[in-house]
Automatic annotation (TrEMBL):
<dbReference type="GO" id="GO:0006526">
    <property type="term" value="P:L-arginine biosynthetic process"/>
</dbReference>
<dbReference type="InterPro" id="IPR010167">
    <property type="entry name" value="NH2A_AcTrfase"/>
</dbReference>
<dbReference type="GO" id="GO:0004042">
    <property type="term" value="F:L-glutamate N-acetyltransferase activity"/>
</dbReference>
<feature type="domain" description="N-acetyltransferase">
    <location>
        <begin position="9"/>
        <end position="146"/>
    </location>
</feature>
<dbReference type="InterPro" id="IPR016181">
    <property type="entry name" value="Acyl_CoA_acyltransferase"/>
</dbReference>
<protein>
    <submittedName>
        <fullName>Amino-acid N-acetyltransferase</fullName>
        <ecNumber>2.3.1.1</ecNumber>
    </submittedName>
</protein>
<keyword id="KW-0808">Transferase</keyword>
<dbReference type="InterPro" id="IPR000182">
    <property type="entry name" value="GNAT_dom"/>
</dbReference>
<keyword id="KW-0012">Acyltransferase</keyword>
<dbReference type="Pfam" id="PF00583">
    <property type="entry name" value="Acetyltransf_1"/>
</dbReference>
<dbReference type="GO" id="GO:0005737">
    <property type="term" value="C:cytoplasm"/>
</dbReference>
Length: 172
């Protein structure tokens, strides 16, 4: 049964063939400096981290990725929804799926760097400051070349790229 006014979509694991559509979906957000741009190769390297939302006709309308940062810590990355699908629950559904994936992996905390504070707050995330990890773990994580880890650690080298964003965390 189809309910009038309800738009249908499904969320599934991304495939390599989705990478061009993912890039097209996030291009407007990169242009607005809401998301950081990435090279195509980075999306292929991380395709297994992505979930995508698509309509019954196969149109990609949303995406998001879960990146493992530490034994108990992951990051929600590149969460985006097509403009004409905003407010339809697509972002929530993708986030819910990424959180389920995180639990399945044994993660207990999820980090995000975002301008969308209201959305993440409504979904149980809170803004964080310093001291969310112990010094021993910090000394290990600081060795990572991953920009997301640098953002989580609030390292000075990423500050020009992240000005205005909020660092948020959720306990799963």
């Amino acid at each position: 049964m189809t309910i009038p006014g309800v738009r249908e979509y499904t969320v599934r694991r991304a495939r390599t063939s989705d990478v061009p559509a993912i890039r097209t979906l996030i291009e407007p957000l990169v242009a607005e400096r809401i998301l950081l741009g990435k090279e195509r190769v980075v999306f292929y390297e991380a395709v297994q981290e992505f979930r995508v939302a698509e309509t019954p006709d196969g149109t990609l309308i949303g995406c998001g990725a879960l990146h493992v940062m530490w034994e108990d810590l992951g990051e929600v990355r590149t969460l985006a929804v097509a403009r004409d699908w905003l407010g339809a629950g697509v972002g929530y559904t993708i986030l819910e799926r990424l959180e389920a994936d995180a639990r399945e992996l044994g993660l207990t905390r999820l980090f995000c760097l975002t301008f969308e504070v209201g959305f993440f707050t409504r979904n149980g995330y809170g803004e964080i400051g310093e001291g969310v990890i112990d010094p021993e773990v910090y000394s290990e994580m600081v060795r990572s070349p991953d920009e997301g880890v640098a953002e989580f650690l609030d390292l000075a080298r990423v500050k020009p790229n992240t000005l205005g964003n909020s660092r948020m965390l959720k306990q799963l």
